């Protein structure tokens, strides 16, 4: 279903627990939990994600999450509809800057768990062929993301900084 790699970061059980429950819910929601699809999740530093963004997207800046899907949406939809899962297939890669997750959680006033969970869900739906550039696409993708987080009880509630 997924594999986690750390690029210039220490392994972290807390990250892995969050990722596990979010990815499992994403697969369940999209009814692909019995497929042989899997996701590669790379947790890294701002410097590394900046370099990857520059190299593969020609965008010379740091970002929070990058998604590299393997399939076009129509191709993936057909594969899922036909239950064409004879072999393991990678859905794609999600690369996340953990430092950015920490910064954005503080900036938005919610928990680290909420921010990391959102990055995973957001990346997952990009791998599934969804986008948010155009408003009509955003109206499809955002509710899917929120539904996963709601089902997991991961809300936007502000954290108490006591």
Please tell me about this protein's structure:
The chain is of the alpha/beta class. The protein has a single domain (2-152), classed as Collagenase (Catalytic Domain) (3-Layer(aba) Sandwich). It has 6 helices and 4 strands. It has helices at residues 13-29, 46-57, 73-81, 98-108, 112-127, 135-152, and strands at residues 2-6, 37-44, 65-69, 89-97. Strand 1 (2-6), helix 1 and strand 2 (37-44) form a beta-alpha-beta unit. The chain is globular. The N and C termini lie far apart (37 Å). The model has no long low-confidence stretch (mean pLDDT 92).
The fraction of residues in strands falls at 15-25%
- General form: globular
CATH architecture: 3-Layer(aba) Sandwich
As for the number of domains, it is 1
Structural class: alpha/beta
pLDDT under 50 segments (min length 5)? none
- Estimated helix fraction: 40-55%
Largest β sheet strand count, sense and barrel closure: 4 strands, mixed
Instruction: Write down the CATH topology.
Output: Collagenase (Catalytic Domain)
Record the SSE blueprint:
Layout: E1 2-6, H1 13-29, E2 37-44, H2 46-57, E3 65-69, H3 73-81, E4 89-97, H4 98-108, H5 112-127, H6 135-152
Parallel strand pairs: 1-2, 2-4
Antiparallel strand pairs: 3-4
Question: Key features?
Answer:
single chain; 162 residues; alpha/beta; Collagenase (Catalytic Domain); four-stranded mixed beta sheet; 51% helix
Describe the structure concisely for a colleague:
By secondary structure, the chain is an alpha/beta fold. The chain has six helices and four strands.
């Amino acid at each position: 279903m997924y594999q986690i790699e750390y690029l210039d970061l220490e392994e972290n059980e807390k990250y892995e627990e969050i990722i596990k429950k979010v990815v499992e819910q994403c697969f369940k929601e999209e009814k692909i939990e019995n497929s042989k699809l899997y996701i590669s999740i790379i947790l890294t530093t701002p410097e590394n994600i900046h370099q990857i963004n520059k190299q593969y997207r020609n965008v010379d800046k740091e970002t929070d999450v990058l998604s590299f899907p393997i399939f076009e949406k129509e191709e993936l939809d057909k594969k899922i509809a036909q239950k064409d899962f004879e072999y393991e297939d990678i859905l794609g890669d999600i690369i996340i800057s953990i430092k950015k997750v920490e910064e954005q959680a503080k900036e938005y006033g919610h928990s680290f768990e909420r921010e990391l969970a959102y990055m995973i869900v957001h990346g997952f739906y990009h791998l599934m062929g969804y986008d948010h550039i155009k408003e009509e696409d955003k109206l499809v993708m955002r509710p899917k993301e929120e539904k996963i987080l709601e089902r997991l009880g991961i809300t936007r509630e502000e954290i108490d900084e006591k």
